[in-house]
Amino acid sequence: MLTILILVPLIGAITIGVGWWAWERAGGAGAVSETEELEVATVVFTTLALIQVARALSARSFTESIWATGLRGNRVLAWMLVAVLVLQLTVVFLPPAQEVFSTVGLAAWELAAGTAVALLVLSVMELEKRGRRRAGAANRPATAPARA
Hints:
- The protein has 6 helices and no strands.
- It is mostly helical.
- The longest helix is centred in the last third of the chain and has 32 residues, at 108-139.
- The model has no long low-confidence stretch (mean pLDDT 85).
């Protein structure tokens, strides 16, 4: 429940913030060309895709961090995440796909910004799991010493 109360507003706020930032960077209200509108939409679309990849990585365990569970434990998930990233980059950079999906190529720093935002969401999820581990440890009874 806490995940929903934290993540939904966070992802919503981040998405609105990224969209606003890209819109302002493109010139803001009234001064944005059609190509710039496509760029704004592509930045938001790509950021959301990267956030979902980060969520999938973190959601593998409710309490263990992604570093404890490792990335190789679920090969199907790992390949699915690779496929999602390849498809996202295809939609953003391959001209026929750009035409179909109404996207434009992004600069490296725009991809880096989306990745940074996704890492922020991942960090929040991992901090929440850390809190769960600590709460669980605090609620567990102490073990009695072994009798000889």
